[in-house]
Amino acid sequence: MNKNILFLFLIPAVLVLPLFAFAQLHSYGPAVSIFYLLDSLLRSLWIIFAALAVIMFLYSGIIFLTAQGEPAKVSTARQAFLWGVIGVIVGIISYSIITVVGSIFGL
Q1: pTM exceeding the 0.70 threshold for the entire prediction
Q2: 98, 96, 102, 57: which is closest to 80 by C-alpha?
Q3: Are 57 and 87 in contact (CB under 8 A)?
């Protein structure tokens, strides 16, 4: 029974603490909003995505070069390249959707 009471007191505290953190960020520095934080996160993820795309294409190129005509390795390299292209297309579309929706709502 005591655990349930403790749990009931902890839930509101956990939900309210992030609000205090945002209040501290806002009052001591430049105006930081949730949209600014999400935009910063999105930019960071875009850089990581671009790095992973380059690594994927380098990986498939190395497999192509080391295949030496073996059909299984060439097939693996083609699949890696195809999935790299599909990943880039999905990444660009998702970034574009987020940007368009943000511009529609004026964020």
Answers
A1: no
A2: 57
A3: no
Give per-residue pLDDT as tens, 15-61.
655 655 555 444 555 666 777 787 788 888 888 988 988 999 999 99
Does residue 81 surpass a pLDDT of 60? Answer: yes
* Per-domain boundaries in the chain: 1-32, 33-107
Q: For the residues 64-87, what does the mean pLDDT come to?
A: 90
Rounded-to-integer distance, Cα 97 and Cα 37, Å: 18
Query: Is residue 74 within 8 Å of 87, Cβ to Cβ?
Result: no
Q: 3-class secondary structure for the chain?
A: CHHHHHHHHHHHHHHHHHHHHHHHHHHHCCCCCHHHHHHHHHHHHHHHHHHHHHHHHHHHHHHHHHHCCCHHHHHHHHHHHHHHHHHHHHHHHHHHHHHHHHHHCCC
Rounded CA gap, 101 and 107, in Å?
8
